[in-house]
Design brief:
By secondary structure, the protein is α+β, with helices and mostly antiparallel strands. It has 2 domains: about 5-135, PurM-like, N-terminal domain (60s Ribosomal Protein L30, Chain: A, 2-Layer Sandwich), CATH 3.30.1330.10; about 145-295, Phosphoribosyl-aminoimidazole Synthetase, Chain A, domain 2 (Alpha-Beta Complex), CATH 3.90.650.10. It contains 10 helices and 11 strands. The strands form 2 sheets. The protein has a 7-stranded mixed sheet, sandwiched between helices. α3 links the parallel β2 and β3. The longest helix has 17 residues, at about 55-75. The radius of gyration is 20 Å and the shape is globular. The protein starts with a helix and ends in an 11-residue tail after the last strand. The chain binds adenosine-5'-diphosphate and magnesium ion. Adenosine-5'-diphosphate binds near residues 84 and 117.
C-alpha cells in the first residue's frame, strides 16, 4: 500500500468549515480569526523512549495529540488543528487503525482537526505532532509572569502517570496512556493567571521553569499536593517523589494573585484546582511539610541526562 492510500485510508477523515483547505494539497490553508495570534507547538513521541513498545496503538494516537493540546492549553489558547508527521518501520494495518482511531478520538473530544502531515518509512516508529491554536492578541500566558505573592496552583492530581508506569495494569496506567489535556481550564485562566506551564517533566522541574523565567522563588507545601488514593497511601518520601519528579501528568501549574484565585474558585467550583504554594522573592524552591523544611533529591526527566 502506497503512502497516498495510507493517508487516504487513515488520516483523511476530517472536513470542516473552520479549515479552508485540509489534507490532500501541498499545504493546509487557514484563515486566522480577527485580532487573534497563532499559538503553535510540536512534540515528538519515539517508540521505546516516550512509550513502552507494547503500548496499545489507540493510546499512542490519543497521547500524541493530548501532549500537544496540553502545550496549547498551557498558553491559555484555544486549540484549533494538528499536523501529523509519522515515520513507520512497516505498514501494519491493525496498528494504523488503532492509532488513527485514538488520534481522532482525542481530536474530536477537544474540537480539533487533523489538517495535514507527512508519512515516511524509517527504522524507528516516530510520531511528531504539531498543534495550532488561537489566542486573543497579547493574552498568551507565559512562564515569565509570576509575581511575588502569587499563589501556585495545580489542576487534577500529580504523580499518577509515573506511578502507572511502574505499576502496569494498575488503574492509574490510564493516566499514563490517556492523559487529559486541560484545554478548558487553560482558556479560562486567560486574564486570571500570571504564569503557567503544563506538567510534563515533573512538577518540581516544571515549576522551576516558571521560577527561572519569572526570576522569583517559591515555597511549596508538600501536605497540599493533590494525590490520588493509591499515592496517598505511600510513605511520604515516595509519594512526594512521584508527585514532584514523576513526569507525564499533563496537568496545568499556574500562578495567580490571591484576588484572582478567589474569582477563579467561584467561577469553577467543579474543577479540581489545588493551591500548593506561594511565590516569593528568594530565588530558590523551598519544600515545606507542615512548616518544616524538607530536602528531596528530585530530578525530573531529562532526555540527555
Ligand atoms: P508533499 O509530497 O507535497 O509533501 P505528501 O504526499 O507528503 O505531500 O502529502 C499529501 C497530503 O497528505 C498533504 O496534504 C499532507 O498534509 C497530507 N498528509 C501526509 N501524511 C499525513 C498524515 N500522516 N496525516 C495527515 N495528513 C497527512
Ligand atoms: Mg507538495
Amino acid at each position: 500500500m502506497a503512502e497516498f492510500s495510507i493517508i487516504d485510508t487513515y488520516f483523511n477523515r476530517h472536513t470542516s468549515t473552520s479549515v479552508d483547505l485540509g489534507v490532500g494539497d501541498d499545504s493546509a490553508v487557514l484563515t486566522p480569526p480577527p485580532q487573534q495570534q497563532l499559538v503553535i507547538c510540536a512534540d515528538t513521541l519515539v517508540a521505546g523512549r516516550h512509550f513502552p513498545l507494547d503500548t496499545n496503538p489507540h493510546a499512542i494516537g490519543w497521547k500524541s495529540v493530548a501532549v500537544n493540546l496540553s502545550d496549547i492549553a498551557a498558553m491559555g489558547a484555544k486549540p484549533h488543528s494538528i499536523l501529523l508527521a509519522l515515520s513507520l518501520p512497516q505498514i501494519d494495518h491493525d496498528w494504523l487503525k488503532g492509532f488513527s482511531q485514538g488520534l481522532y478520538d482525542c481530536c474530536d473530544q477537544f474540537g480539533v482537526r487533523l489538517i495535514g502531515g507527512d508519512t515516511t518509512q524509517s527504522p524507528h516508529l516516530t510520531i511528531s505532532v504539531t498543534a495550532l491554536g488561537w489566542i486573543d492578541q497579547g493574552q498568551a500566558i507565559t512562564r515569565a509572569g509570576a509575581q511575588v505573592g502569587d499563589l501556585i496552583c495545580v489542576s487534577g492530581t500529580v504523580g499518577d502517570a509515573a506511578f502507572g508506569l511502574q505499576h502496569r495494569g494498575h488503574e492509574l496506567q490510564k493516566r499514563l496512556d490517556y492523559p487529559t489535556p486541560r484545554c478548558e481550564l487553560g482558556q479560562h485562566l486567560k486574564g486570571l493567571a500570571n504564569s503557567m506551564i503544563d506538567v510534563s517533566d515533573g512538577l518540581a522541574q516544571d515549576l522551576g521553569h516558571i521560577l527561572a523565567a519569572s526570576k522569583v522563588g517559591a515555597e511549596l507545601y508538600l501536605e497540599k499536593l493533590p494525590l490520588s488514593p493509591a499515592l496517598q497511601q505511600l510513605p511520604d518520601q515516595q509519594k512526594w517523589h512521584y508527585a514532584l519528579a514523576g513526569g507525564d501528568d499533563y496537568e496545568l501549574c499556574f500562578t495567580i494573585s490571591p484576588d484572582h484565585y478567589k474569582i477563579l474558585k467561584q467561577q469553577t467550583p467543579h474543577v479540581n484546582i489545588t493551591m500548593i504554594g506561594t511565590i516569593n522573592n528568594t530565588n530558590t524552591l523551598s519544600l515545606l511539610h507542615h512548616h518544616d523544611s524538607v530536602v528531596l533529591d528530585l530530578n525530573g526527566y531529562q532526555h540527555f541526562a
